[in-house]
């Protein structure tokens, strides 16, 4: 396993694709008020949802919104990991992307585009 990671330069790919995914998500959500932050560590990329972007007040409603996003994402073939309660144990919603090391640039772009569509659709129904 370690040899494959080294031989195929997968760690370098993780850095490049992680920056790409973060950049694409930041671009797509720069004007979406409920997205408070997009941050990453390699290919682990988190999207935080807020009630107020300026104060960074956590998105209310407990785990409901992140779970809803996960259900919608699965219906569109996108796997994300929902999270909630990071602000105080109850409030706050976020999701985590953790795509495979071998994700292509095209696949990363597709993930960001699909997720934007999902978030916007869920926002319209809240």
TrEMBL record:
Q: Name one GO cellular component term.
A: cytosol
A molecular function GO annotation: transaminase activity
Q: Does the keyword Metal-binding apply?
A: no
UniProt-listed Gene3D superfamilies: Aspartate Aminotransferase, domain 1 (3.90.1150.10)
Which Pfam families does the entry mention?
Aminotran_3
Domain of life per record:
Bacteria
Q: Cross-referenced PANTHER family, in alphabetical order?
A: AMINOTRANSFERASE, AMINOTRANSFERASE CLASS-III
Q: Which family does it belong to?
A: Belongs to the class-III pyridoxal-phosphate-dependent aminotransferase family.
Q: What is this protein called?
A: Adenosylmethionine-8-amino-7-oxononanoate aminotransferase
Organism listed in the record = Paraburkholderia atlantica
């Amino acid at each position: 396993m370690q040899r494959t990671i080294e031989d195929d330069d997968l760690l370098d790919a993780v850095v490049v694709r992680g920056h790409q995914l973060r950049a694409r998500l930041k671009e797509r959500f720069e004007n979406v008020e409920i997205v408070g932050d997009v941050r990453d560590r390699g290919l682990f990329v988190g999207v935080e949802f807020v009630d107020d972007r300026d104060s960074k007040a956590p998105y209310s409603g407990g785990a409901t919104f992140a779970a809803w996003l996960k259900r919608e994402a699965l219906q569109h073939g996108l796997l994300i990991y929902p999270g909630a309660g990071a602000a105080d144990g109850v409030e706050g919603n976020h999701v985590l992307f953790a795509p495979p090391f071998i994700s292509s640039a095209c696949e990363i772009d597709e993930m960001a585009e699909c997720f934007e569509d999902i978030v916007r659709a869920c926002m319209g129904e809240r």
